[in-house]
Amino acid sequence: MEKEITFKPSFNFNDYLKINYSLLFKKVSFSIVFIICILTITANVIFNTVNANDFIDFLSFPILISLLVPLIMVWLPYKSTKMILSDPKLKENIIIIINRTGIEYIGQSFQNKYEWKDFSKITENKKWYILQLNKKQEIIIQKKDMNTNQQLDLKEIIEFVKN
Questions:
Q1: Cα distance between residue 96 and residue 103, in whole Å
Q2: What domain range includes position 78?
Q3: Is the same domain home to 63 and 21?
Q4: Could you tell me the pTM of the whole model?
Q5: Residues 101 and 155 in one domain
Q6: Quick one: pLDDT at residue 76?
Q7: Given this model, what pLDDT does residue 150 score?
Q8: Is the same domain home to 113 and 138?
Q9: Which end of the chain has fewer surrounding CB within 10 Å, N or C?
Q10: 51 & 66 share domain
Q11: Are 132 and 117 found together in one domain?
């Protein structure tokens, strides 16, 4: 008999905010922005040292960058989470069905089906599964939305799909 998991997902703001922060810090683009900021600050320090500018000029730009970049990095996932969770479809009574053919989201006004071949990468951590559709789109399955047997079944299905 084919295993099938059916459960109701929860869409809690704090949980999804943590997920978005986690995903952001794993992205290469975050590393690139961080490196660019460090290089910009270093270039500013060298430029001001060579030109013997005032001490205020020497520190103003690095301080601005040091404050602005972290604020943006905190604000972007927050804003993104707020935007995603404001989707009226997420307020519907949704169920998720997972089996060996794929994943299906069924709401009152929609039905989305993804086959396992649609996912480019599947990762697991302590709290959730991340199913990557493309570089900018992931489907998150929270383990806390499933009971222990469902989690074991999902693990078995994913192992089957990976092989």
A1: 7
A2: 16-85
A3: yes
A4: 0.70
A5: yes
A6: 83
A7: 92
A8: yes
A9: N
A10: yes
A11: yes
Task: Output the six-digit token pair for 114.
Answer: 């993804």
Averaged over successive runs of 10 residues, the pLDDT of the chain (163 residues) comes to 83 86 73 75 72 61 71 84 87 91 93 92 89 86 92 90 80
We report the CATH number of the domain holding residue 124 as: 2.30.29.30
User: What is the pLDDT, as a whole number, of residue 52?
Assistant: 65
- Nearest Cα to Cα of residue 64 among 41, 90, 93, 30: 41
140, two tokens: 């998150």
Indicate if 74 and 106 belong to the same structural domain: no
Show the CA angle centred on residue 9, arms to residues 8 and 13, nearest 5°.
150
Judgement on whether residues 50 and 95 belong to the same structural domain of the protein: no
Q: Are residues 75 and 99 in the same domain?
A: no
Q: Check residue 110 and give its pLDDT.
A: 92
Distance between CA atoms of 125 and 138, rounded to whole angstroms? 14
